[in-house]
Design goal:
The chain folds into two domains: 131 residues, Sandwich (Immunoglobulin-like), CATH 2.60.40; 160 residues, Adenovirus Type 5 Fiber Protein (Receptor Binding Domain). The model has no long low-confidence stretch (mean pLDDT 92). By secondary structure, the protein is mostly beta strands. The protein starts with a helix and ends with a strand. The protein has two helices and 28 strands. Strand 14, helix 2 and strand 15 form a beta-alpha-beta unit.
């Protein structure tokens, strides 16, 4: 019954039966408990197994907790693989000592870790923790290595796995493929990345200002997510005909202010303009968004002109004039107003 309502192998928590590299080629498995193929397993002390070094090259081995229904106890066992992959799994018959056995009721190998060993080295080269835990009301939890190597997990179609305190989630689909998916535990949020102009030489911090008129049928998309105190997001603004950018520095509203321990952050972006705002040619420009501690708006910077890559504060036209050909980047005979703005946000926040 237990096997039908939970993962085929799941430990009680992140520290139960945790594998770690010991001295030499020894792998230690911490005390703990869990379920494997419907059987309750419990270890009250640290167990260990020694990996045998290959005679040449490298090899991927599996460290498993082997449950044999003919025995009253389970054993920690190392099963040898090859230079390119861990040992294969068998799902029928009486089981094989040289394979990962997944035959509930006969022999079952609960996969604890994948271990890489190399000839001539006295220690384990790498250890990938492959346990699962949790899952009540949500995805099973795995390590980052478990998520990256999900194809080696013993899981049913429809299983969801995720790393702790992260948005990384995968699902096993009916074609046998693990696919990355969004998680409802921490979905992306939207906000309004309002463009503002300030008819003055500089803004520090950017407050006040006037709204940029985006024109007819503008297209705006802005989403962000916060994970472990770090905000990541994307902004895309496409202006329409009849836009009004005013004069002076330009800013974009942020979803959250920058953390108080970070003095300033520069985020990458891009500005494109066509000939609808004057000038003789369309142009693409690299851009930077300056975000300082406590700011709720990012200040846009861009190259001075096509021949000078030094950065200056982006503006459609110089403050006090509003005249064509006075903006930055320089647009001879036109206003330096972007048709498309895109920025990738990445900065710390206090949450």
């Amino acid at each position: 019954m237990t096997q039908s309502v939970t993962a085929r192998f799941k430990v009680d928590g992140p520290n139960d039966l945790k594998p770690s590299a010991g001295s030499g080629l020894r792998i230690s498995v911490a005390a703990g408990a869990g379920f494997a193929a419907g059987a309750r397993i419990n270890s009250t002390s640290t167990e260990s197994v020694t990996i045998s070094a290959p005679s040449s090259g490298s090899r991927w081995d599996a460290v498993v907790l082997r449950i044999d229904w003919q025995k009253s106890t389970a054993d920690v066992v190392a099963v040898q693989g090859t230079a390119s992959s861990p040992p294969s799994a068998v799902t029928s018959g009486s089981g094989r000592a040289t394979s990962i056995n997944r035959i509930p009721g006969t022999r079952y190998d609960a996969l604890l870790a994948l271990v890489r060993v190399t000839a001539g080295r006295s220690t384990v080269e790498s250890l990938l923790d492959m346990r699962m835990w949790g899952g009540d009301g949500g995805p099973y939890r795995v390590t980052a290595n478990g998520l990256a190597n999900a194809q080696h997990l013993d899981a049913r179609v429809g299983t969801w796995i995720a790393t702790d305190r992260s948005t990384e989630t995968k699902r096993l689909d009916d074609d046998g493929a693990w696919r990355a998916i969004g998680t409802q535990a921490n979905p992306y949020k939207t906000w309004n990345p309002t463009l503002r102009f300030y008819d003055q030489d500089s803004v520090n911090p950017p407050t006040g200002g006037k709204l940029v008129g985006l024109g007819n049928a503008p297209q705006v998309s802005a989403r962000y997510v916060v994970t472990d105190g770090w905000l990541k997001g994307m902004v895309s603004i496409r202006t329409g005909t009849g836009n009004q950018f005013g004069a002076g520095p330009l800013t974009i509203d942020l979803p959250l202010p920058c953390a108080d321990w970070q003095s300033d952050v520069w985020n990458q972006g891009h500005i494109y303009w066509d000939r609808s705002n004057g000038g003789s040619t369309s142009a693409d420009w690299p851009a930077q968004l300056l975000i300082k501690v406590g700011w709720t708006r990012g200040l846009i910077w861009a190259p001075l002109n096509k021949d000078d890559a030094r950065l200056g504060i982006h503006q459609s036209s110089a403050p006090g004039t509003g005249a064509a050909g006075t903006g930055l980047p320089h647009n001879p005979g036109g206003w330096s107003a972007g048709t498309i703005y895109t920025f990738e946000l990445s900065y710390p926040v206090d949450v």
